[in-house]
Records
---
Amino acid sequence: MAAAVSLVRVVRSGLEESVHLGHVAVCDAGGRLVAWAGDPTRTVFARSSLKPVQTAVSLKAIDEPLPDAEVAVMCASHNGEPVHVGVVRRVLLRAGLSPAALLCPPARPLDPEAAGRVAHPHRELHDCSGKHAGMLLACVRAGYDVATYVRPKHPLQKRIHRAVLRVSGLEEVVVGADGCGVPVFGMPLASLATVFARLSRPESLGELGEQVDRCVEAMLAEPYLVGGRETTDTAVMSATGDVVSKVGAEGLECAAVLSSGLGIAVKVADGGDRASGPALIRALESIGALAEDHLQELARFARPAVTGGGRSVGELRADFDLRGRPSSLT
């Protein structure tokens, strides 16, 4: 097993104060590892990065056209801003259910401005509430029990498990519990990068391909609903229109580059979420997925400020290099 490498350095007043180590895998839709840093075979929980796959399974069960906004929020790790909560409630209304049916934990918005307006935690404010609302709608349409939809043996979760095996190309994955309560799947980082490469080539996914393509389309059409104010996912998708970006948790960030068919999975070893965005943008830059105007637009996400006394006194710097075959990245 290869050691983790330096992905992001924290520089304050000219001194390197901290270093975030981690791993990167870049794969194509055939599962070929084309570039990496650290250990691309490291097993990680995919966390919320797999929401496009989970939502594709829900869409298959729902079997009716949904607007971009509703599909996007089902794929989201959203901030809990009013615009997000409003769309989550629309999905629940479509299912004939209230927010009380959600089994994700009560939460406050991730967005500080939105959180300042909330007196108490609520389930629809959880960053995974869109995914849960979509699962509930799927259960209603398929005739599944809505009170137990988070359990691993529930018919919808069993369908999701089979889809994860199909999309990843693995015979088995580690199954655990995600922070929002639904099953979470562990796999090698390179397999997760392969999943994202296949999001850009849905024709390789058989009967689920149409729904995966619908998720990708909706995420790019409504990037603000996938994250929100000051989130890397929203910024990357808004800037490029070609990269589908999806954060996980514990320092995980993944992306699909539609034009090249490559997938990227970044894992910050210490779980530091502040480092995952800069590391993903560096990886995208390294494989030629970002033009100069994209880099300028994403500069504050690529090199977030380190502050002192309310002013910028440094920055986070992701300046690692990928190993691999450069000719395969162009």
Note: The chain has a mean pLDDT of 96.
---
Amino acid sequence: MRYSSKVVERLVNQYKEISLLGKVSALLGWDLNVNLPSRASETRASQEAFITKLISQRWKSEAFKADLASANKLKNLNPHELAIIRNLNHSAKFYHKVPEELIVEFSEASSRAFVAWRSAREKSDFSIFAPHLSKLVEINKLIAGHIGYKKNPYDALLDMYEPGLTAKECTQIFAGLTEGIGDLLKSIKKSKTYKTQKSSEDQEFPVESQKQIANFVLNKIGYDFNSGRMDVSAHPFTTELGAHDIRITNRYSPHNFIESIMVAMHEGGHALYEQGVDEEFVNTPLEGGVSLGIHESQSRFWENQVGRSEEFVDYIAATLKAFYPAQLAHDDARSMYLKFNAVRPSLIRVEADEVTYNLHIALRFELEEALINGKIKVDDLPKIWNAKMKKFLGVVPSSDAEGVLQDVHWSYGSFGYFPTYTLGNLYAAQFTHFMKKEIDAPSAIKSGNLGIILSWLRENIHKHGSYYWPNELCKRVTKKGLDPKYFLDYLSQKYAALYV
């Protein structure tokens, strides 16, 4: 990449160290989730805090701050340079406004909180995690105050994951979605299909065969195993350790073979995005996905628009029956399709169906916004969680593990993250609508020729990395900004035909 300004070139060279340190931190995080011995948590917290301090020092160096200030005054920069400065300004808000000691404290607190969360979840005891969560909530309040906001401190946290997103916008989005989804869910529950659908949870599907199927699916969608790997963790995730080291994790339930397939496609979607970014952007402020909302659009696209489509289920059915001849002996095309798309209000977000999934996110958004604004207390979360589960989904957890402790994100201190899952669903449906105007996606899926779809994503989304801001990218792909109508139409058309 050529730069017209020596100042911008210096900034990019300085940023390279930040990027490399960030990948070292990501490696520590991957190991924390996948391999870390139970007694090593304090050592890991110190290691991550040290790397965090080094990253913070580079962001806060006088040379870097001076060059960024100078770059903001430059005229006639080329589009790439303008995007670089925009991205640096956005990220710098955290490091330039939040004191270094608070950043380091946040890193240490989240490392300890993860270990506490894991123990609390295993024992289904929220009290083990509560003091750690309380500390992370207070730190996030301080961070929001340092970054600054107009009306709502939660806005400052949302902006770190999705540039410009506000609590007001989230409230409007969720209001429309919960109403539309609520109406659809009522219709589904009245259908004969809903009343007669059966669960296959009493059957067993060996984990080893699930791993083979997950590998098959990842290869089919185009995940490059020479530039990544799949391991096991309590909560599946994707992490970038380098341009050619994009790792994912999965989890397996012996009574639910569909979950591991969907996780593989979901995390594989994240990984494909990172593997498809223009290599010219490596270790520059343009590397990686532009926002979590756009990132989630890629994971949710492969999981739902492809993985749960009638065409894909038809394509993979023969493979599944080869692995599970006895368990799936009585399944025809229709019943197999229904297995992948069974609507059943449930307790666990990551196991939720397409129709009810965003109700889980709406619940978490309301809780996060209330916590950051001091409307509710951490100690009251289990009780409030259960009440909102009954309100949104009509089910109530019987334990902390299947309720307030089910998600890992709060142990990372990631407040403002959850709404991006819903944004991802909205973007995915909108992108798919316009993709189908350019390529015959259903036929490609039915034949297993998924390279055609991946090529479209590479050209329209992946290769751009963080060059275009989310709404600008959406307008480039679909000729308009984000519109929840595409998602609601997609759900209504699909499930009205499925649940009759």
Note: The CA atoms of residues 387 and 396 lie 7 Å apart.
---
Amino acid sequence: MKFSAYQRTEQGGRSSNQDRVGYLYTAESVLFVVTDGLGGHANGEIAAQMTVDTMMQAFQKQASPVIADSSQFLSEALLQSHQEILQFSSKSNMEESPRTTLVALLIQNGQATWIHCGDSRLYWIRGEKTEQRTRDHSYAEQMPQSMIDSAEYLGKEVNRNMLVTCLGAPAEPIYDISPTVDLQIGDKFLLCTDGLWGSLNEDNITQTLAASSISVSVPQLIDLALKLGGVYSDNVTAVGMEWQG
């Protein structure tokens, strides 16, 4: 298994960095994870870190050297992360549990499967176009177009930051998991928090990733997001991967 990867997280203009990122691999399998602790809830960085740790620990236990069932692994690891956060909150007597988004990508046997909860995104680039992009669990992306176009919303901007689900909330998390797809050499993936995609348009993300290697394009996107965000920039975090066969 051959791939190249680049990861980076930046605090931006915020007082702390609640994003987390990581990847782990065996000779035949690799897991990428990005989380974004919710700033509106206390200790979001704790939920973000716990989720990365839980996902990685599950991968270490089960990848020998591959995961038996990619979809089952991702969904079980996500739900385990959610339970770990709730248990931590209960033991710590927190008034409100810390919360986080999650996007994770598992690649093995020349195939990719991914899962997400919240508005941290995955972009799959093949050639010069975006083959697929995750749909945020936010009111802006989950609300039916008919409602957005209604008289009540005409002339108003739907708040893209309002999420309908996350890990660590009292309700069971809603999540989407992809079909397992066959990879081609040169396929690229970008996992990122809203601090990156919120400052950039999708054409710019696609064109930048398509134009150069992951080690060049991902830092370019991060630097541009930070520049456009200015002194009020959100945390900006991304990990990119290029499949090499």
Note: The longest strand covers residues 29-37.
